[in-house]
Write a structure and sequence with these properties.
With 151 residues, this protein is α/β, with parallel strands linked by helices. The chain has a single domain, classed as Rossmann fold (3-Layer(aba) Sandwich), CATH 3.40.50. The chain contains 4 helices and 7 strands. Strands 1-7-6-2-5-4-3 form a 7-stranded mixed beta sheet, covered by helices on one side. The longest helix has 13 residues, at 43-55. It is globular and about 40 Å long.
């Protein structure tokens, strides 16, 4: 795990992928990453960069799991589970997905819209705030604590 918080501003999708690869290098099996921020802030692009870095190829990415709710990737380091909580209405839906089966010491979980159900995520979750700072610029800032619940 990184000894200092991750904080980077990106001005392109390619730069976001490079930043995500740097972040991916700090992950280990058992990691849970909560990606938070408004629509268009770069959560899915960042997740794609992390998944590509861990898998070793950009062609593997299945897109945002907004409707599937979770996508699974087999990476060399550990299986990666990419969740999207945007459409989930209640924590019971997360349990019904088999959250406890995915969120294990053997895998890595990336969760978009994680602040909607922060209480479901483990205490050691790493929180990454994704922000729009200009029309073509995004900031990715690791938070020291969980963000307030999304409304």
């Amino acid at each position: 795990m990184s000894t200092s918080p991750f904080d980077i501003t990106s001005s392109s999708e390619a730069a976001t992928h490079m930043a995500a690869a740097q972040f991916a290098a700090t992950l280990a099996p058992g990691a849970v990453v909560g990606l938070v921020g408004p629509l268009g802030a770069g959560k899915t692009v960042f997740a794609r960069g992390v998944i590509s870095a861990l898998h070793g190829t950009p062609a593997v990415f299945h897109g945002s799991p907004t409707f599937a709710l979770v996508h699974e990737y087999r990476a060399a380091l550990a299986p990666v589970f990419h969740f999207d909580f945007y459409r989930i209405k209640a924590a019971a839906e997360i349990a019904a997905l088999g959250w406890d089966d995915y969120c294990t010491p053997a895998g890595i979980c990336l969760v978009e819209w994680a602040d909607r159900f922060a209480a479901v995520l483990p205490a050691q979750t790493r929180w990454l705030q994704c922000m729009i700072v200009a029309p073509h610029a995004r900031r990715f800032n690791e938070l020291s604590t969980a963000p307030p619940p999304a409304v």
